[in-house]
Known about the structure:
The protein has seven helices and no strands. The protein is an all-alpha fold. Helix 1 crosses helix 4 (69-84) and helix 2 (15-22) crosses helix 3. InterPro entries: Phage_Mu_GpJ (IPR009752).
Amino acid sequence: xxxxxxxxxxxxxxxxxxxxxxxxxxxxxxxxxxxxxxxxxxxxxxxxxxxxxxxxxxxxxxxxxxxxxxxxxxxxxxxxxxxxxxxxxxxxxxxxxxxxxxxxxxxxxxxxxxxxxxxxxxxxxxxxxxxxxxxxxxxxxxxxxxxxxxx
Length: 151
C-alpha cells in the first residue's frame, strides 16, 4: 500500500516540468506527458515510501495503515523531489522549493525516529494519547521520618 497516489504527484508538478523529468523527447500533448510520467511517479512513490519506512520502522509497524495525513504529505513531498531531481535541481530557481520540502520531510522523519515527535493516527483520541506519555517507577522508599524516628 502506497502512502500517496501517482495522480497526486503528477498534479503537484507544473506542466512545463514534465518534459525535463521524462527526458528523451518533447511530448506536446499534456495527457500523453502525464501517461509517460505515471510509471516514473509510481517508482518515485515506492522510493519515498521505502525512505519513510526506514525512519519509522523502529517505532511503528510499517507500512502504516491507515496512512496518517502527515505521512501522506511527506510521501508526496519526497516523491516529487525524487522526480524533479532526475533532471537536476537548480537551487537558485523555483526548484529550490522542492528541495526545501524534501529537507523538511527528512527533518520531521528524523525527529520521529528519535522519539521527539509522535505520529497520531486518525481516529486516535489525542487527549488520551497525550496522557499516556511516560511513567517513572522506582523502589519503595527506605527512609522516611517515621522509620528514622529515634535515630
